[in-house]
Design brief:
Elements lengths: L19 H6 L4 H13 L1 H12 L10 E2 L7 E2 L4 E2 L1 H5 L4 H4 L3 E6 L5 E5 H17 L7 E5 L4 H13 L2 E4 L6 H11 L3 E5 L2 E3 L2 E3 L1 H9 L8 E5 L13 E3 H6 L10 E2 L5 E5 L7 E5 L2 H15 L6 E4 L6 H13 L3 E5 L10 H9 L3 E4 L1 H8 L4 H4 L8 E5 L5 H11 L6 E4 L33 E4 L12 E6 L9 E2 L3 H8 L8 E9 L5 E6 L3 E4 L2 E4 H9 L4 E11 L3 E10 L6 H18 L8 E4 L13 H8 L16 H5 L4
Parallel strand pairs: 4-17, 6-7, 6-8, 7-14, 8-11, 11-12, 16-17, 16-18, 18-19, 19-20, 29-30
Antiparallel strand pairs: 1-2, 3-13, 4-5, 9-10, 14-15, 15-23, 21-22, 22-24, 24-25, 26-27, 28-29
Bound molecules: 5'-O-[(S)-ethoxy(hydroxy)phosphoryl]adenosine.
């Protein structure tokens, strides 16, 4: 591997072992974990088959475990049948029907609790409503909702009847929503009049109307939840209020027995091209790992209150809000609003008042909250919290230590969980009662997950601290099945590099002398802004869609709160804008990208230039641009540049 970026740079020597007290109460003790690893090593398929039989309730038991006849399109438990919603809800009714499933808090402080029995009734009524509106197994349904219980109800209702949901994050724009509706060929949209975030209303219905104004011929119905109550347009014949749709429906809906491989959902995520890919997940394999990891990693038991702060628009909100913890019978917290509303104490206030015991969030949120100072968390009683987690990006040791001392009071293990939209569930993480943690490392793979670091030729990198490609050597049940409508892209993106021998995650990583994994970042053109994946190409396509932009190149640079931020170089039609004009255009372009993709994609920096540096063969010299954006020394050969004077413009000096 020649790329300098991939050389390991982080060195962290501190270790934190779980307390004897935590271990004594934990689900998995050192001997249990060891036994699970040994079982998976001795008989991989047998290991997964045993878990699938223990954890899931089957309508028709499976006899095939792993079908690799169409590798790398792997399939699991292929002749089995079950229903995901029944496995999250109905299975609990006898033993914990009255247990709280969801504790909801709105941004304005409104609260609502749903027991497992109530949630099952609501899901069933909405599932009946979906059928009455014409939805059937296999139909795609787009969910574009605020973080309210109805978002989970809608997802679970789709699962109950076998409709394939595709949740689109409420922060995405009308254009991004339209692209996803069209790619999925969706039949319905489930949305709300609006949602609340950071003190303002997110106009979800308005954005839906704008998306549907063009090219979404497949959409037949739009179901609209009344959340904010502000005025919106309803299109007769197409739009129906949620309350009206469920009004006449029974609260009993027999869950449909579906094949294990029946697609549960699509979730669009960014890749190296301008077009987001619809990651397709299965039913049984997905749920198995969402449930297992909820138990193993978050150690959930009946007295826990689990709060995963992720929005259901992301994979974390699928696996650790809508599915995994419910399958495990836990009580979850859902919160509609922003983390600093009305102030930076909101999360900690909620932890105290709702009695949160296990808290899971993103490093970017921690870095943002840390800046406001310790006085916010220190105002609240956080003594019920017993376990903390992070996900989405590498956590810097400083934020880790703050989490450990100020939030966890040096008492709580921190699980730094590495996984991806594609993996469906957590792959590498400390097991809280067992693994000694090191700030910044996701430590080791879970039982049954064969991660490795390899060099360019696919050989394991043995040397401690040498970097390479992060790969997964064996298929696992919750892996993505394909990219919706584009299996060639699935193979090309995840498998071709090493001739289908193993799954290529797209991250670089290294291992230390203890075998612990350290994630170093993406290898492809994906940036991680506030824990959210964005393709640089997506932002570039948005920029060039502006009528005055001729060409654009987007790179990332480190950002102390967001992790990475977007830096765009733009070539404008006509004279290169400078001074006040450049300032005005920067704002215009930022807003433009916000409209095209969503606010998270807005570039932090825009630099106007007469042209972009290219190689003789016409390729944009992205590494050079990255070095300039980061203020690093230029090591590339610039003698081939058409116009060397351009360097000063790129640096912002001319
Ligand atoms: C990054 C989020 C370091 C990584 C669940 C991965 C992480 C991408 C971690 C997936 C972690 C996620 N440490 N990096 N603990 N967790 N990542 O699909 O680059 O939104 O490939 O899934 O986030 O992002 P995605």
């Amino acid at each position: 591997m020649t790329d300098k970026n991939i050389e390991s740079i982080l060195i962290e020597k501190r270790r934190f072992a779980p307390s004897a007290e935590f271990t004594a109460g934990a689900r998995l003790k050192p001997a249990d974990l060891e036994a699970l690893h040994a079982e998976a090593a001795a008989d991989y398929e047998g290991f997964w088959a045993a878990r699938a039989r223990e954890e899931l309730s089957w309508d028709k038991p499976f006899t095939t475990v792993l079908d690799d006849s169409k590798a790398p399109n792997y399939a699991w438990f292929t002749d089995g049948e079950l229903n995901v919603s029944a496995n999250c809800l109905d299975v609990h009714l006898a033993e914990r029907g009255d247990k709280t499933a969801i504790i909801f808090e709105g941004e304005e402080g409104d609260r609502r609790n749903l027991s497992y029995r109530e949630l099952t009734s609501e899901v069933s009524r909405f599932a009946n409503a979906l059928q009455a509106q014409g939805a059937a197994a296999g139909d795609r349904i787009v969910i574009y909702m605020p973080m309210v219980p109805e978002a989970v109800i809608a997802m679970q209702a789709c699962a109950r009847i076998g409709a394939i949901h595709s949740v689109v994050f409420g922060g995405f724009s009308a254009n991004a929503l339209r692209d996803r509706i069209i790619d999925a060929g969706a039949k319905m949209v489930i949305t709300a009049d609006g949602g609340r975030r950071g003190g303002s209303v997110i106009e979800l219905k308005q954005a839906t109307d704008a998306a549907l104004a063009e090219g979404c011929a497949s959409i037949e119905k739009v179901i609209v939840l009344k959340r904010t109550g502000h005025e919106i347009n309803m299109t007769a014949g197409r739009d129906i209020w949620w309350d009206d749709a469920v009004a006449e429906q029974s609260d009993v809906c027999e869950p449909v027995a579906l094949n294990a491989e029946h697609p549960l959902f699509l979730l669009y995520t960014s890749g190296s091209t301008g077009k987001p890919k619809g990651i397709q997940h299965s039913s049984a394999g997905y749920l198995l790992q969402a449930k297992l990891t909820s138990k193993w990693v978050f150690d959930l038991n009946d007295s826990d209150v689990f709060w995963c702060t992720a929005d259901v628009g992301w994979i974390t909100g699928h696996s650790y809000v809508a599915y995994g913890p419910l399958a495990a019978g836990a009580t979850i917290v859902m919160y509609e609003g922003g983390p600093v509303y009305p102030d930076a104490g909101r999360f900690w206030k909620m932890c105290e008042e709702l009695g949160v015991t296990v808290f899971y969030t993103a490093p970017t949120a921690l870095r943002a909250l840390m800046k406001f100072g310790d006085e916010f968390p220190n105002q609240y009683d956080l003594s019920k919290i017993r376990l903390l987690g992070t996900v989405g990006e590498p956590i810097n040791p400083e934020a880790w230590m703050w989490y450990h001392t100020v939030i966890g009071k040096e008492r709580c293990p921190i699980v730094d969980t590495w996984w991806q939209t594609e993996t469906g569930g957590i792959m590498m993480t400390p097991v809280p009662g067992v693994t000694a943690t090191k700030p910044g490392s996701c430590t080791l793979a879970l039982p049954g997950i064969m991660t490795d670091v390899v060099d360019d030729s696919g050989n394991s990198v043995e040397a401690a601290d040498a970097g390479g490609y992060l790969v997964i050597r064996k298929p696992w049940p919750s892996m993505l099945r394909t990219i919706w409508g584009d299996n060639d892209r699935y193979i090309e993106t995840y498998w071709e590099k090493f001739r289908n021998r193993f799954y290529v995650a797209g991250d670089s990583a290294h291992r230390d002398a203890d075998g612990y994994f350290w994630i170093m970042g993406r290898i492809d053109d994906v940036v991680n802004v506030s824990g959210h994946r964005l393709g640089t190409m997506e932002v570039e396509s948005a920029l060039v869609a502006h009528q005055r932009v001729v060409e654009a190149a987007v790179v990332s640079r480190p950002h102390d709160v967001k992790g990475e931020s977007i830096f765009a170089y733009v070539v404008f039609r006509g004279d290169r804008p400078t001074g006040a004009e450049a300032e005005a255009l920067t704002k215009e372009l930022r807003d433009w990208v916000g409209e095209q993709v969503g606010a998270i994609a807005k570039p932090d920096d825009i630099r106007f230039t007469d042209n972009l540096p290219k190689t003789r063969s016409g390729k944009i010299m992205r590494r050079l641009l990255r070095a300039i954006a980061r203020g690093e020394e230029i090591t590339q050969d610039t003698s081939t540049l058409e116009n060397e004077a351009i360097l000063d413009q790129l640096r912002g000096l001319a």
